[in-house]
Amino acid sequence: MSTQETQERLELLQGTLDLLILRTLIFGPRHGQGIARAIQETSEEELLVEHGALYPALQRLEQRAWISAKWGVSSNNRKARFYSLTAAGRKQLVRETTKWKRLSKAIARILGSEAAEG
Q: Where are the domains of the chain?
């Protein structure tokens, strides 16, 4: 990936990372690096989750009881914390997904009106 492509990656809006983590964990437990990699791959390399943002978000979600964590061994034989979605996390995922869909539709309407006006 070129330097320009790296610089042009989309920045995550505040609150988005929590939603993306919850959504990623719906497919099963993952360790932190696996979560970051899944978000990057699923976004077709548009989103890069920095470790400085990921781990505080994981701690925050764990404190809210939306995810749980336990120690395990990763595929490369390293000790890692694996995070899982809780029942409360599933409910929060539904709430947050609904809010973000409403927000994106509203923004799309506004951006779409530019084309109609222009």
A: 3-117
Contact 87, 64 (CB under 8 A): no
Give domain 3-117's CATH architecture.
Orthogonal Bundle (1.10)
Ranges of the chain whose pLDDT falls below 70: 1-14, 114-118
Find, among 80, 87, 96, the residue nearest to 26 by Cα: 87
pTM (two decimals): 0.83
Residues 118, 109: Cα–Cα separation, whole Å:
14
Distance CA 6, CA 45 (A): 9
Which two three-digit tokens encode residue 57?
A: 């978000």
Torsion of CA 105, 34, 2, 14, to 10 degrees: 40
